[in-house]
Design a protein that fits this description.
Strand content: 5-15%
Shape: globular
Strand order of the largest sheet: 3-2-1-4-5-6
Helix content: 25-40%
Order of helices and strands: EHEHEHEHEHHEH
Low-confidence stretches: none
CATH superfamily: HAD superfamily/HAD-like
Radius of gyration: 16 Å
Distance between the termini: 8 Å
CATH class: Alpha Beta
Number of helices: 7
Bound molecules: magnesium ion
Number of domains: 1
Mean pLDDT: 96
CATH topology: Rossmann fold
CATH architecture: 3-Layer(aba) Sandwich
Oligomer: single chain
Length: 196
């Protein structure tokens, strides 16, 4: 049986938006976000991080450093018994400075390659799944992948919402103050779609 997942953006959704997060010391979790991930785990969803990290293409930090940052993130989540079932990263950008990562790709959100790869790796049913993020590119990713979506107002979320037009504002299935509120809504509405 395929599982449902909650796909999570990283910056501005789980941890504070700091521009480009270049080293683990700059990682600050948003209040309540680790407990929210634990509630996703406990509810039987896969919790899958999907993140654009063009700072790698831009030469701001390396893939090795990103792994150190993600180890720190996972350790912080583990303090409350939360974990991520998968971490999927797009390191590319068209205007990068590191040749290996400077190209057009099909994995930078809102493109769907990372989500499709996760669905294959983790046996996920996308039509039962959710995407939570603070950017409309996260919401577009959900639309492009057949998932439901929640826009959070942490990070750039409020700014994104304020400049969105009425059409864009109709895209998220829900708008939450933060990840904790997003999980409240998902758990209250899951029976409308999730197969468990
Ligand atoms: Mg974000």
């Amino acid at each position: 049986m395929k599982r449902a997942a909650v796909f999570l953006d990283r910056d501005g959704t789980i941890n504070e938006e700091v521009g480009y997060l270049r080293e683990p010391g700059a990682l600050i979790l948003i209040d309540g976000s680790s407990e929210a991930v634990r509630r996703i785990n406990e509810a039987g969803f896969s919790a899958v991080l999907v993140t654009n990290q063009s700072g790698i293409a831009r030469g701001y930090f390396t893939e090795a450093m990103l792994e150190v940052i993600h180890a720190r993130l996972c350790a912080a989540l583990a303090e409350v018994g939360a974990c991520l079932d998968g971490i999927y990263v797009c390191p590319h950008h068209l205007e990068g400075s590191v040749a290996a990562y400077t190209r057009k790709c099909d994995c930078r959100k809102p493109q769907t390659a990372l989500v499709k790869q996760a669905a294959r790796d983790l046996n996920i049913e996308l039509s039962d799944s959710y995407m939570v993020g603070d950017h409309f590119k996260d919401i577009e990713l959900a639309r492009n992948s057949g998932m439901r979506s929640v826009l959070v107002l942490t990070g750039h979320g409020q700014e994104e919402w304020d400049r969105a037009d009425a059409v864009m504002r109709s895209w998220p299935d829900y708008v939450a103050a933060n990840l904790s509120g997003a999980v409240d809504w998902i758990l209250a509405n899951r029976n409308r779609s999730a197969r468990q």
